[in-house]
Design brief:
Blueprint lengths: L51 H14 L5
Length: 70
């Protein structure tokens, strides 16, 4: 039981992986396998980043000077 491989979780549904292959299909062309070209990612909204130092500085300013008025 110690060397028994862990069961994979499905990345699309809330279940264990059943090796159906649905996660490998291209979102834009269901007749091809995904090649990670990222063409399905519109504007990178899920991949935007935040400069943590800038965030902390803004938070410190807010604490020191109060909220900015719009």
């Amino acid at each position: 039981m110690e060397n028994e491989p862990m069961e994979k979780e499905c990345v699309l549904y809330d279940r264990k992986c059943i090796d159906c292959g649905e996660c490998l299909v291209c979102d834009l062309d269901s007749s091809k396998i995904c090649d990670n070209c990222c063409a399905c990612i519109d504007d990178g909204e899920d991949y935007r980043s935040l400069n943590i130092l800038e965030f902390l500085e803004r938070q410190e300013d807010t604490e020191r000077f109060g909220k900015r008025k719009k």
